[in-house]
Every structure is written in C-alpha cells, then in structure tokens.
Design a protein that fits this description.
The structure holds 2 protein chains of 2 kinds. Chain A is α/β, with parallel strands linked by helices. Chain A is 41% helix and 11% strand. Chain A has helices at 34-39, 44-52, 55-65, 77-82, 109-115, 117-131, 145-160, 191-198, 227-239, 241-245, 280-287, 321-325, 345-359, 365-382, 388-400, 410-424, 426-430, 435-441; strands spanning 94-99, 135-140, 176-181, 222-226, 257-264, 270-275, 297-301, 335-340. Chain B is α+β, with helices and mostly antiparallel strands. Chain B has 2 domains: 2-74, Arc Repressor Mutant, subunit A; 86-161, 3-Layer(aba) Sandwich (Glutaredoxin), CATH 3.40.30. Chain B is 45% helix and 11% strand. The chains are: A alpha/beta, B alpha+beta. Chain A: This is NADH-quinone oxidoreductase subunit F.
C-alpha cells in the first residue's frame, strides 16, 4: 500500500536551495533511507554543528534565522531555545518532538515523518546538541502507524551508523532518541499536556509558569518543538542564516519556507513547500488549481480548526503571521481549507464544536461546560429549533471562552472560528431560529 | 459479555506482556511513564483492557491502580470494554465533513447497524470517531485497523469492508 502522504509535493519541481524541506522527496513517495539521505548531503549539517559550532553558536544561528514554531502558535524557536537554563549543573535535559499531529485539516508532519525520517532525526540531533539535551522523544500520535514503523527503522539505521548513542561521530556528544506513540486525544498536542502524557499521566495542561524550559518532563529542563520546526534546522546550519532569510518573499515577517496546503472542493487538494509571504490567492489558484467546476468559494480558513474564517475578498492576504493577522486571524498551520457555497456554516460549526467539545480535557470549567453548550445550541439551530437568545449565548461563549479566560489555548481555538462565522454569516445562524420564536420577537419568517 | 467481565477479577499479566512492559521501562527515568504503553501492550494481546489489568500494571510500575485507571479512561484509543475484531475509525474533521463523511456513517449504520461507539452484533466491527487523520487532501478518509484509506465513497466503503472478515 502506498504511504498516505504521497501527493503533489512529490511531483512538483524542487531544488535544494529553494525547497530545503522537501527537495529530497522521491517521486514514488517511498521513504528516503539513510544511504540515500547521506548521498544527498544528509547529516552534513550535523557534522558541521559538531565540528565547528558551539551549542551557543547554534542557538544564536537559529535565533538569527527568524525560524518560528511550525505547530500553529508561531513562537520564535531561537527564543524558546534560549530559555533553557545556562546553568550546566542542570545536566539532565530533554528535547521533545511534538509529532501529535491532530489539528483538523493538518497533514504536513505526516509527510515529513513518513518520507524524510532522517531529516527529523538530524534536526533533533543538532537541536539536542545546541540545547545540551542527552535524551529525546518523538511524541507521535498512535494512528500514524506507518510513521512509527518508518521512524523506528530510521532510528535503528542511525544507531548502527554511530549517529545516535554515545560519542556521536567521535564528537563526545551523547544522545538517545525514542519514538513514543500516544493513545488518542487532541489535547496531547498542547506542550505541557504532552509532557504529562509522556510521563504517563492524564493529558491535562500544566500551569505556566514555570515553563517547560525550567521545569518540564520529570522536572527537568525540557524543550518541545514541532516536527516541521525541527526539520528546518539542518538547512539553517548547513547553508547559513543569510541564505535562509532570503527564502521568504519580501514583506514577510516569517522566514524560510512553509509546508502550505489547500483542501476542500478545490481542483488539486495538496501540500507544497512554498516561501512565506505568497498570497493565499496564489496558494489556492496556482497551486491548488482554484475551485472545482460548479463550486464557488464561500469562505476559507488559513491554518487549521483553531483559526478564523476569512472571506474570498481576503484571498490577497499574504501567508505569514502579520499578513493573516492584518485580516483578523492567525496563520496557524498554514494548511488552508476552502468552504464552498454548498456548505451550511451552522452545520460546519456544529461539526467543529462537536470535535472541540469531545476533545476538551475537562480540566477547566469554561471549556468543559461551555463547548458542549455551544454544540447543543448549534444542533438546535441546525434543526431550525433555535431561539433568538441562542445567538446571544453563542456570542457570550465566544467571549467567555476566549484568550486568557481558560487554562490553555483549546477553548480559545474552539471559539475563534465560531466568532468569525457569527461575524460574517450571522444570517445563516438567524435562519435556524424556530418559526414560533421568530413570531414572539417579531423577526420575519424565513 | 458478562462472563468476560467476571473473569477480569482473576487477571494476571502474561509473561510476554510483563517482559514487554519491563523492556519499555528502560526508555524512561520513571516507571510511571510506561502506564499508557503498558495498557496498549495488554490491549494488543487481548483486544481490550479488563479492570484487573489496571491493578496488575499499577503493581508492576509501583503506582496506584486508580492512577492507571485514570489514564485508561482518559485516552480514546484505550478500550475499557470488549471491541469487535476490526476497529473502524472514520475521520470526522471538518475537512471530511465537507467531503461528506456523514454519508459514510449513514452507510455503516444501514449496513452494519452501528453508530460511532458501537460494535456490530456479529462482533466484526467497532466503529469509532477519530480526530483528523491527517490525510485531508484525500478526504473523506478512514482507518480499518492499521490501514488508512483516502477518497472513500460510500460504495467503495462497502467493498473495503469485505477485506476484513
């Protein structure tokens, strides 16, 4: 059976200096194993980091590169790294790879892990050396069974070649790396919940501060980075900061390339490695081929379930943090979803809030109780059984579950698309108010 | 089913399960970390996790059985009741919703008589909802056991099921 991640990214023209993440992808979609990876400059960046760079120099290079987290939040990676204690006496440290890809409409880390396992291993080795971490775990969602098999084979290859374990490539640097597979639950992708899950506990998020960089897994300094983030590191080290900063289009506040995609009723749904700063229109029309015949774009989401809906008139927004913020939401994972005119926004939001309600860990009240409430209301509106008060309550939930009012970012992510749908498509929600209730408040019958 | 539940009172870990759990312990600085993996090891052997397994795993890892139970009931891929021979996971993300995953669920209800969370009367399939399977350019998507399928139509689904007796 072909790997699920085989797709357009395997077929488009690519080059090492423009597609640092995906240039090694094979046309047949098979994993790039160690021999082939080494033949194509693989582990050269590790060699350079071990031979020529101090850990501090690598941290500085990543900071200067402008690399930001690719898991959806976009926190500067170099800043996160520099939060790790400088104190050498805290000598047990962990590097965790967040490979718990479960954000609805996100299928990028799967590609990297299934087809380029050694790129991740090399990225983790360089990062671990920079952070002086002796042990790492790849926290992989349980359903990615092919990725688990492929990563474990790549780890075995790396161990046999002296790239993992003691005294790596004769440098004196030791690093052990394990694949840890999860057992479900979206919340495991929240970095402190991930740490709890790795420790064998329920995946409730932890209070911050203290941040994982000071008190993380088993109380040790811990750094959690996304798969795609770590896969950017080798090229930054091998080809340099100036080259990396030249990749994005001018005006972009994000540096480098990004795995971007478009799904929904578009001609060619898929994933491509593209420079930050291209317009969403270019992503949709040039790469995804525009909408399928007979389908009209109603709205779109720039990067996952936790980002807001945007209108067709926003398609000229540039795909980088500032470009998407300028039109009112976040870029998230950069994998966009096209919603066509045949889709009911009430039904779509009902589906989305069912997901967020089911996946709430239950730790804090606004999230645990507010999300099922939103589902109940959305189901009523979908069946034409709503009341005028329902719309008011939905608006309040958007407010009460928003940023800063809950323990983690789960509920704010859940109400971001709801708030934008209420803003742009209020008439569709109003149409779900029952006829008797419409008469009571003097609304026109539909 | 009631017979199976009664038998769990006399649960003991098999030697193979015990060894697999001991092996996993070496990967972590604290044995508690193995609790989820230990539950998966038991589930792999038996298809589900009987009550007694939580006590046995707790004893092996040196943590309270209630903690293991707390973990077992938190994670959606740990099964606390017997399941069918095959696990059918239909992705219910918004992308698959747009691509019509609910028509797949209707077809499964008609053909197998089950809703998400239920097991068919013949014990062949358990149908579970699952978070986005990360196969969104091939929506709708689903998994049957460890196999992932994309661009699944309702008619194709009926044929796919035949490969899982």
């Amino acid at each position: 059976m072909k790997l699920a991640s085989l797709g357009p990214a395997n077929r488009v023209p690519r080059a090492e200096d423009t597609h640092p993440l995906t240039w090694r992808l094979r046309e047949d979609g098979e994993p790039v194993w160690l021999d082939e990876y080494r033949r194509t400059n693989g582990y050269q960046a590790l060699r350079k980091a071990l031979d020529e760079l101090t850990p501090a120099a690598t941290v500085q290079a990543v900071k200067d590169s402008g690399l930001k987290g690719r898991g959806g939040a976009g926190f500067p990676t170099g800043v996160k790294w520099s939060l790790m204690p400088a104190d050498d006496t805290r000598n047990i440290r962990y590097l965790l790879c967040n490979a718990d890809e479960m954000e609805p409409n996100t299928w990028k880390d799967r590609l990297l892990m299934e087809q380029l396992p050694h790129l991740l291993v090399e990225g983790m080795l360089i990062s671990a050396h920079a952070l002086r971490a002796g042990r790492g775990y790849i926290f992989l969602r349980g359903e990615y069974v092919d990725a688990a098999r492929i990563l474990n084979r790549a780890l075995a290859e790396a161990r046999d070649a002296g790239l993992l374990g003691r005294n790596i490539l004769g440098s004196g640097f030791d690093f052990e790396l394990f694949v840890h597979t999860g057992a479900g639950r979206y919340i495991c992708g929240e970095e402190t919940a991930l740490i709890n899950s790795l420790e064998g506990r329920r995946a409730n998020p932890r209070a911050k501060p203290p941040f994982p960089a000071s008190v993380g897994a088993w109380g040790r300094p811990t750094c959690v980075n996304n798969v795609e983030t770590l896969c950017n590191v080798p090229a930054i080290i091998l080809h340099g900061v100036d080259w990396y900063r030249s990749l994005a289009r001018s005006g972009s506040d994000d540096m480098g390339t990004k795995l971007m995609g478009f799904s929904g009723r578009v001609r060619t749904p898929g994933l491509w490695e593209l420079p930050f700063g291209i317009s969403a229109r270019e992503l949709l029309e040039t790469h995804a081929g525009g909408m399928r015949d007979g389908h009209k774009l109603k709205c779109w989401q720039p990067g996952g379930a936790g980002t807001g809906f945007l209108l067709p008139e926003h398609l000229d927004a540039a795909m980088h943090a500032g470009g998407i913020a300028a039109v009112g939401t976040r870029m998230g994972t950069g994998l966009a979803l096209a919603v066509d005119a045949s889709v009911s926004m009430v039904s779509l939001l009902r589906n989305m809030e069912e997901f967020f309600a089911r996946e709430s860990c239950g730790w804090c009240t606004p999230c645990r109780d507010g999300l099922p409430w939103s589902v109940k209301i959305l189901r009523a509106l979908e069946q034409g059984q709503g009341t005028p008060e329902d719309l008011q309550v939905l608006g309040e939930l958007v407010e009460f579950l928003g940023p800063g009012k809950t323990f983690c970012a789960h509920a704010p992510g859940a109400v971001e698309p709801l708030g934008s749908a209420l803003k742009y498509f209020r008439d569709e929600f109003e149409a779900g108010i029952a006829p008797s209730a419409r008469a009571r408040v003097g609304l026109a019958q539909t | 089913m009631s017979l199976t539940l009664i038998q769990t009172d006399r649960f003991t870990l098999s030697e193979a399960e015990r060894q697999a759990i001991e092996q996993e312990k070496q990967h972590f600085e604290d044995p508690r970390a193995v609790s989820i993996e230990a539950l998966k090891i038991v589930q792999q052997q038996r298809g589900w996790v009987p009550d007694g397994a939580c006590e046995a795993i707790g004893a092996l890892l040196g943590i309270p059985a209630s903690d293991v139970e707390g973990v077992a009931t938190f994670y959606s891929q740990i099964f606390r009741v017997p399941v069918g021979r095959h696990i059918l996971r239909v992705c219910d993300s918004m992308t698959c919703f747009i691509a019509g995953h609910e028509t797949l669920l209707v077809r499964l209800r008609d053909q197998l008589g089950i809703e998400p969370g239920q097991t068919s009367a013949d014990g062949r399939f358990t149908l579970l909802p699952v978070c986005c399977l990360g196969n969104c350019d091939k929506a709708p998507t689903l998994m049957i056991d460890d196999d992932t399928y994309g661009n699944v139509s309702a008619d194709a689904l009926a044929r796919l099921l035949e490969a899982y007796p």
